[in-house]
Design goal:
four-stranded mixed β-sheet; globular; alpha+beta; two-stranded antiparallel ribbon; 60s Ribosomal Protein L30, Chain: A; binds zinc ion; 6 strands; about 30% helix
Length: about 160
């Protein structure tokens, strides 16, 4: 079992004002909604949690170290591209992903209609079949910042193994 490592990630972004016109990007997919998430990059909260889980599993720190939000290079960055770089770092070190489980936390939007599109977009970047990338969501029963619709949170867990 020594060739296996687990990692977890958590991220939060607040919603931008509707008049900011930012798209809502989740798992590399634009999801129709009346507002997008605020952030230095495209604010893809699910990919950010996923990248932190991958970096954590490989013992490589966190996305703040790899892609500092003070660096203009990452302004408006496509998080799917950043995920590609994280996967490059992992494979250079001899790791491959076994499976991943990503959970969006918030009241709206509902991601059910977009789940298969998200899996189809991100699973190949992880070197996975779609069935090995689980995408799910939960509400917080209208409690807290996610319950009030102030933002979205995401959690991710990944398992990696030595190639
Ligand atoms: Zn983030």
């Amino acid at each position: 079992m020594t060739g296996l490592r687990i990692g977890q990630g958590f991220d939060v972004h607040r919603f931008a004002a509707p008049e900011d016109g930012r798209p809502l990007v989740l798992m590399g997919c634009e999801v129709p909604h009346d507002r997008g998430l605020a952030g230095h990059s495209d604010a893809d909260v699910m990919i950010h949690a996923l990248m932190d889980a991958l970096l954590g599993a490989a013992g490589l720190g966190d996305i703040g170290q790899h892609f500092p939000d003070t660096d203009p290079a990452y302004r408006g960055a496509d998080s799917a591209q950043l995920l590609r770089r994280v996967m490059g770092d992992l494979s250079e070190r001899g790791w491959r992903v076994v499976n991943a489980d990503v959970c969006l936390i918030g009241e709206r939007p509902k991601i059910g209609p977009h789940r298969e599109r998200m899996r189809g977009r991100i699973a190949p970047l992880l070197g996975l079949a779609a069935e090995a990338l689980n995408v799910k969501a939960t509400t917080t029963e209208k409690l807290g910042f996610t319950g009030r619709g102030e933002g979205l949170a995401a959690q991710a867990v990944v398992l990696i193994e030595r190639i």
